[in-house]
Backbone:
């Protein structure tokens, strides 16, 4: 069964780039461009992992993370941020994120994070 990834970023080019990359890697991909859409897509698509941008207008990534955790305790969440924010990243981990990565995205590192989280999820 293909694993499903939800990509959430208010920057459309980032979403599209990640979507192309993940499709080439064999994942099913669902995209959202804001927190409210992310929550709806999560309910509909039931992804295995969400890649969630921290800085978004409206409902930011941290609030979206909290709402996702209320709806689904099992989905793996990897936060994405444009700047290195260790304290914000650590706060996200305390709220239930698996990890966080910074832009510009290192796609090899992202792929490794995804694979590690999926292996961990499959082991449960």
Residues:
């Amino acid at each position: 069964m293909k694993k499903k990834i939800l990509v959430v970023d208010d920057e459309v080019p980032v979403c599209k780039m990640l979507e192309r990359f993940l499709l080439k890697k064999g994942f099913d991909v669902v995209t959202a461009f804001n927190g409210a859409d992310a929550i709806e897509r999560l309910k509909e698509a039931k992804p295995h992992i969400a890649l969630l941008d921290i800085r978004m207008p409206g409902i930011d990534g941290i609030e979206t993370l909290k709402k996702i955790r209320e709806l689904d305790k099992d989905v793996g969440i990897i936060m994405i941020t444009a700047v290195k924010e260790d304290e914000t990243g650590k706060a996200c981990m305390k709220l239930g994120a698996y990890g966080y990565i910074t832009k510009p995205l290192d796609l090899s590192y992202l792929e490794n994070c995804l694979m590690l989280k999926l292996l961990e999820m499959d082991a449960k």
Q: What stands out?
A: The chain has one domain: 4-123.
